[in-house]
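#data-curation
PF: Archiving a pair of folding outputs for the training set. Convention for this channel: one message per protein, sequence first, structure tokens after, nothing in between. First:
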Amino acid sequence: MQDQTFNDDFRTQFDLLMRLRRDVRRFRTDPVDEAVLTRCLDAFRLAPSVGLSEPWRVIRVESEAARAAALKNFQAANAESLAGYSGEKAQIYSGLKLSGMQEAPVQLAVFCDDATDKGQGLGAGTMPEARRYSVVSAITLFWLALRTHGLGLGWVSILDPDKMTRDLNVPDGWRLIGYFCVGWPEELLDSPELERVGWESRYDTLPVEVR
């Protein structure tokens, strides 16, 4: 393969892509073209993984029963999370939309197969969690791929992972990494909602320590 050197225009576009990635919560209900979704899912095939273990396992959640169970899971966990805040934080939290599960046309549960033999354990002997890091890396590439087509992704982390695993009846050894909503964003934003509503702010500069 020929060495590829990217120019300034490409780097500018890539920077814009990262800025517009966003964690989407508000989706239109319009369907997603299957060919586009398949192309974006190819990002998993291109992603790095420790020992070439490719430990990601993707479940497409489509049945009414499975989606209802996932939504109920989120709602229970969200109520519990709200109860852990008080005062201004509780007020802000109660106004946040933290899931697009009722609107997003595509919903995926992504797991890590901690028991996989693929990769022969290379690189995971001292840090077995590296397999899960590999899955997160693949998800990030998938996220960016979706954005290039105008699609958005919402990562739902407020839920009970063990219950989700049971509800989806996945094999032993699979561990939930995240539940993801995919679809067309209602609006295009260039800053996190949590920053806009005053929940938290980004660092102005990257805090790098030298030792």
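PF: Second:
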Amino acid sequence: MGREFDHCSVSRCEIIEFDGGVVNLPDKKARSGRVYMMSDYYDEAGELVKKGENFIKFYERLVRFIKKLAPRREVKAGGYTFKIYVSDGVFELYRGGEIVKFY
């Protein structure tokens, strides 16, 4: 639109990606969320560069917190048993038959 925008490289910047899960009750499906970061990358010279220690520790604390909110539980779908991280509310929907598929 006639303006230039700066951009951040996920691999080089201290960025944590987060995509929250989605519950679709009419279809009885729940899509999992994701939290992700890259702890190191290769620079222009091909050298491995590790991101800041405080950033990595923050990410690890964040992941532990999320796992407390959404502990790992067994769910069955399509004849298979899976262990996934799922919150209490979504797990109750699954146990009540309101969710039958996780993707």
